[in-house]
Write a structure and sequence with these properties.
The protein has 22 helices and 26 strands. By secondary structure, it is α/β, with parallel strands linked by helices. A 6-stranded mixed β-sheet has the order 11-16-15-14-12-13. 56% of the residues are buried. It binds alpha-D-glucopyranose.
Length: 709
């Protein structure tokens, strides 16, 4: 064959859109250095450095993250697809957690909506906006189950329940992946950090891992997530980023996951700190052979593994499998065909309207004595507190390109509803000065109601933000007491990234709303709820303890051999505080009231292959339209392993007019009542299952059915 003809074919081949067989051909032409280059991922500081551009030219980078804007991604991509030898396009990653520039509620807040469709919508919008700025891969959704509010990253997930967490994980994957790759993180068990201390060790039994922490990842995989991110923590002594049971046995052999695993930041290098590797090369070998395909930020794979491959301490087949997973992902994203992926962002008005709607659905009404809320749009309102006129904190702990200038503060939101507003900051968020108390008290004295906006700074939750206490920081509690002492009715608006201890407020303040960090429309959404333009419908995705000493405290706990009994000293409880939470999982109030009656099950006996339908009549017994989150819990009363006293297995948001009653159906496939048996395999055993249907995890009508073989 003439040289010219050979070159022509090669050029056409390289330029041609890659197909499966071409990827094999591409792989066969890659040098070992270029293969390890595809496994290398580095962070840029907004734009690629000259050194990073040189790595791209040399084929030693598979992706970059934190490159901001298409004006910065395009030139680097051009180097990859025109100047590198094999012209393999790059991935451009970013932590688009709950919005790109249009910031939506933090995931914990959005989970309060119990509305997976809302989560899918915000993820889709965030992915579309990010794609318009050159991003093709997000490190979200974070799907870690969290039972300990001391852990700051509880803010980034969907709370304590695997069922709600799984629905939210799948919804966010579907949403993001309409425009960019999604990454389910952090695989796995990160939320079980002992003592809620960030990055701490975890002691998770295989049964709890499979029943509680893994299900949201499985839901993300079933929803087609492209990548998983391996976690920093160890699991019973085996670090997640060097844990073949997680990233090979479970992920590849059991789940048949076709995507790829990226390490979290320098978690490959951190295997040395964990004490399971004595060198960078050994750390890289442990991680890669365990199933971590891409090395984020350590540069170990690209710098230290060639010699191990050449000496067969790492089989070349392991490298090739990892490279192929990444090439297939790039092919799936269409990068070989369209590396620049020019996209347009959704209109800002659309994003803002979505942000306001979802924020309104994420606000939990915790208390409303004597129907103080909703407020009338008349008279003088005092708006007080360090978060009242704050435009930064509502963005939350990880807000990507979100800007304070885009945020509507609570004060601004309230001013759109009433004319006469008195404002006093009152205090800082976590400083000790009370110099502002006098002005706050004076404002409260002149008002018919005082709205206090209190809580945390955005950076007091999220990564590297564990707290050893859970109260209102600084002197905010004293500010609340000083204002309440004026006798002016107080509405407490909370802005926070975790459950807080609210003992004094819960006993003395007539109205409390939990707003989490709601994003750019925080002020309008909060005002919509405070003044009744939106009837709150959110429910808690996490338990609020009474005191810190109860933590960890979660609803789906086992019964123990001596379940709490106030009349029996020798039962599982404390001598100084009730064992019940201040506010339970699934709890939330409305401006109307709902009643439940006539719970019926479709069958008294059912086989594993059957589906049980629970039908309950829900009545809006109040004076205005409202949305109830009807929740169905199940208890497997007797099994070969002790089972939780309740597990959420279905829920539905139901909107009813005043006086309206509706028969609501909730379906549960009996096969979904599995647990991990004594043989460590999933099983549904015959026996009695108790079904609870009601407004939260502490109440409800009951019925039972028999599961028969
Ligand atoms: C961080 C986080 C992880 C994030 C990654 C990239 O350390 O643990 O969630 O995606 O680094 O920013």
């Amino acid at each position: 064959m003439s040289h010219v003809r050979h070159v022509l074919i090669l050029t056409v081949l390289l330029a041609a859109p890659a197909s499966a067989q071409n990827l094999d051909s591409l792989l066969s032409r890659m040098t070992l250095e270029e293969k390890l280059g595809q496994l290398n991922l580095l962070s840029a500081g907004g734009r690629a450095s000259p050194e990073q551009m040189q790595l791209v030219r040399a084929g030693k980078l598979g992706g970059l993250f934190n490159v901001m804007g298409a004006e910065n991604t395009t030139p680097v991509q051009r180097i990859a697809v025109t100047e590198s030898r094999l012209k393999i396009p790059l991935l451009f990653g970013l932590d688009v957690i709950h919005g790109y520039r249009a910031i939506f509620p933090i995931p914990l807040g959005e989970a309060s909506s119990f509305d997976p469709e809302a989560a899918e919508a915000t993820a889709r919008a965030a992915g579309q906006e990010a794609a318009a700025f050159g991003i093709n891969w997000t490190y979200a959704p974070m799907v870690d189950i969290a039972r300990d509010p001391r852990w700051g990253r509880i803010a980034e997930g969907s709370g304590e329940d695997p069922y709600l967490g799984s629905l939210m994980a799948a919804a966010r994957v579907r949403g993001f992946q309409q425009n960019i790759f999604a990454t389910a993180k952090h695989f796995a068990g990160y939320g079980a950090a002992e003592a809620g201390r960030e990055y701490n060790e975890t002691e998770i039994s295989e049964r709890t891992m499979r029943e509680v922490y893994l299900p949201p990842f499985k839901a993300a995989v079933d929803a087609g997530v492209t990548s998983l991110m391996s976690a920093f923590n160890d699991v019973a002594g085996v670090p997640a980023s060097g844990n073949a049971w997680l990233t090979d046995t479970v992920l590849r052999r059991e789940w048949r996951f076709p995507g790829f695993v990226v390490s979290d930041w320098t978690s490959v290098a951190e295997l040395i700190n964990h004490g399971i590797a004595g060198s960078q090369a050994e750390a890289g070998r442990r991680a890669l052979t365990a199933g971590v395909d891409m090395d984020m930020q350590s540069s170990i794979y690209v710098d230290s593994l060639a010699a191990l491959v050449q000496s067969n301490r790492i089989p070349l087949a392991v490298v090739d499998s990892a490279v192929m997973r990444i090439l297939r992902a790039k092919q799936r994203l269409g990068l070989f065909r369209d590396p620049y992926r020019a996209r347009t962002a959704p209109p800002a008005t659309e994003l803002r309207a979505l942000a306001r709607r979802v924020a309104g659905e994420s606000i939990v009404l915790l208390k409303n004595e004597r129907s103080l809320l909703p407020l009338a749009k008349a008279g003088t309102i005092a708006v007080i507190g360090p978060l009242a006129d704050n435009k930064e904190e509502p963005l939350g702990p990880w807000h990507t390109q979100g800007r304070a200038e885009d945020v509507v503060s609570v004060l601004q939101g309230i001013k759109t509803k009433v004319q006469t507003v008195l404002y006093a900051q009152g205090s800082g968020i976590d400083d000790t000065s009370k110099a502002g108390f006098a002005a706050a008290v004076a404002a409260a004295r002149q008002a018919k109601v005082a709205v206090l906006v209190l809580g945390e700074r955005g950076d007091m939750s999220g990564e590297a933000a564990s707290r050893s206490s859970l109260g209102l920081p600084g002197v905010q509690e004293q500010l609340l007491e000083a204002v309440a002492a004026t006798g002016t009715p107080v509405v407490l608006v909370l802005m926070n990234g975790r459950p807080l201890i609210l003992e004094w407020a819960s006993d003395h303040v007539p109205a409390i709303v939990e707003t989490w960090f709601l994003g750019i429309e925080a002020g309008n959404a909060t005002a919509d709820v405070l003044f009744g333009d939106v009837n709150p419908s959110a429910r808690l995705p996490v338990t609020f303890p009474r005191v810190l000493g109860q933590v960890p405290l979660y609803y789906n706990h086992r019964n123990t051999g001596r379940p709490p009994d106030a009349n029996n000293k020798y039962t599982s409880k404390y001598i100084d505080v009730p064992v019940t939470p201040r506010y339970p999982f699934g709890y939330g109030l409305s401006y109307t009231t709902f009643g439940y009656s006539n719970l019926k099950l479709s069958a008294a006996r059912a086989r594993v292959s059957d589906t049980i339908t629970a039908t309950v009549t829900v009545t809006n017994s109040g004076g205005r339209e409202g949305t109830e989150v009807v929740q169905l819990y199940v208890r497997d009363e007797v099994a070969s392993v002790s089972r939780p006293v309740r597990e959420l297995k279905a829920f539905r948001r139901v909107t009813l007019k005043p006086g309206e009653s509706r028969a609501v159906d909730l379906r549960v496939a009996v096969r979904d009542l599995w647990f991990i048996g004594l043989d460590m395999k999933p099983v549904v055993e015959p026996g009695t299952f108790r079904v609870y249907v009601g407004p939260n995890s502490a109440e409800g009508l009951e019925a039972t059915f028999e599961c028969i073989p």
